[in-house]
Amino acid sequence: MTTPNILDSITNFGDEMTTTDGVRAAAAWFAMTEPDADYALDDEEAPYKLRAVVGERIGWDAAQAGLDPEGDIPRYVDYMRLRDAYGHAWPFASMERHLAGSMELDGTSLKPALVVGTWTMAVARYVEARAAHEEQQEEALEVAA
Fold this sequence. Notes:
This protein is mainly alpha-helical. It has helices at residues 4-19, 23-32, 46-58, 60-64, 74-86, 90-100, 110-144. The protein is built from seven helices and no strands.
């Protein structure tokens, strides 16, 4: 049985993936797949830790884009909730569930291709964003030295 919180998280994630570049979601996915990752939903600090790791990888502005700068972290809770519900492949399962309600795609074979294509682009953009952020960090260190 799917809980309302999961449905909200699916909607939030699906909307994010269809209206943004998906970099933050991809960064969160990579962070949560690390062998030592510990982002338990019952740990009140976990979403803040996840946000910090995402910020280290893609920059604070990208990690907080569209979120409350005063520390509101619901999007990170969404990522954690989806991971707990669907496991390692949560981006695919969540996008499939999000698209399931799309009348334009009902009964078509486009959904799997759309899900894979959307996630592939998000991961590619994440790789670029992470490299750009690391380059900026290196340049800042050189200037400071």
